[in-house]
Amino acid sequence: xxxxxxxxxxxxxxxxxxxxxxxxxxxxxxxxxxxxxxxxxxxxxxxxxxxxxxxxxxxxxxxxxxxxxxxxxxxxxxxxxxxxxxxxxxxxxxxxxxxxxxxxxxxxxxxxxxxxxxxxxxxxxxxxxxxxxxxxxxxxxxxxxxxxxxxxxxxxxxxxxxxxxxxxxxxxxxxxxxxxxxxxxxxxxxxxxxxxxxxxxxxxxxxxxxxxxxxxxxxxxxxxxxxxxxxxxxxxxxxxxxxxxxxxxxxxxxxxxxxxxxxxxxxxxxxxxxxxxxxxxxxxxxxxxxxxxxxxxxxxxxxxxxxxxxxxxxxxxxxxxxxxxxxxxxxxxxxxxxxxxxxxxxxxxxxxxxxxxxxxxxxxxxxxxxxxxxxxxxxxxxxxxxxxxxxxxxxxxxxxxxxxxxxxxxxx
Length: 412
Ligand SMILES: *Cc1c(COP(=O)(O)O)cnc(C)c1O
Prior knowledge:
nine-stranded mixed beta sheet; single chain; alpha/beta; eight-stranded parallel β-barrel; TIM Barrel; 23% strand; Lyase, Ornithine Decarboxylase, Chain A, domain 1; binds pyridoxal-5'-phosphate
C-alpha cells in the first residue's frame, strides 16, 4: 500500500477556507511540474519528442501556462480548447487538434492557429479541404480494429467510433500524396487509464511497424508517430503506478530495432496525456455538513457530483483523507455523499474512514484531471473555485466561483 501524501495539512486548508469557502479545488504546482518533467525525461532520447497535454483533462489556462513553461504542447478537440491554448501561449504545431465528428468552424480555427490536424476519418480529407483548405502537414488517427482489445474505458477498438481502419490509412495517405500534402503523422489511442507498462511499448512497436509498412508500400515517410493518451493513474493506494521511465526505455529499444538506421530515422514521438500529467496535482476539498444513520451510515459533504463526476458516473475510486490528526479515531464504514437529487451522487461507497465529525475537512485525491473539467450545473449547482498552491508556498486564485448571476447570464 502506497501512502497517498498531500502537499498541505489541515491548518493550512482551514485557514484557506476563511477566504475561500468549501468546496474548492487546489492544484499543486510542484506536482504538476514533476509530472511534465517525467514525460520529458522519459523520452529525452527521442529528438523532438513532445507531450501534448490533453486540455479536456483540465482546461484552466493558468495550468496550461505552467505546462507550456515545461515545454509541453496542447491536445485539443474543440474550438474553446483551441482558444484556451492560444491564450496560454501554446501555438502553431505545439497544438495537436485530435477531434472527431468535427464541425467546419473548428477546422478553420485549427488552421488559423497552424495546429497539426489529426483527422479522425477518411471523409474528413475532402471535408477539411472544402472548409479550411489542406495544410502541409496532416496526421491520421488509426483504429487498429480486431486483435488489440484491452480492458479500458474505450473498450474494444471495433466498437469505438474513433479513427480510420487499417485499409483506410493506406487509402488516405495515397490521397494526401496526390493532393500534395508534404508531411505526415500517424496517431493511435486504444487505451484509457491503463496501468500496464508493456501495453504502451507494444503500441509504439505496432506504430513503428506500421510506419515501415507505409514507407515500403506507399513510399510515405512519416515524420512523427503520436501514441495518444491512456496513461493510467494509480488512484487506489494498492495499485502499482506506471513506470514511465521504463516505458520510455522500452520504446527506445523498439525504436533501435525497428527505426534507427533506416530511412525513417529520425522519427519523432509525441504523446497526448492529460490524466497522468494533471490528476495527482489536484485535490478537491470539501467539508462535512451532515451525518445520517438509516439503513447505512452516510457522511454528507458540501461538494457534490457536479464538482466531481467520476465516482458517480464510472464508479471511479478517489482516495479520501480526513484532514487533521485522526489516527486515534476508530474506523467506520460510510458512504460519502453530495446533495444532488440523484442516488449516484456519492464520492465513496462502503469506504472505511476514521470516524467522521461534522465540520471535518475531507481531501478527495487525484482530482486534477476530469474533475472540475467534467463539472456541470444540474440541480442548480454552481461551479466552485480553483486555487493554485504555487511553488513559493503562496496560494493564487485561478478561477473564481460561479455566482447566481453567472447562472442566469444565458437566460433571455
Ligand atoms: C482523452 C484523450 C486523450 C487524453 O487521454 P488521457 O486519459 O488523459 O491520457 C488524448 N487524446 C485523445 C484523442 C483523447 O480523446
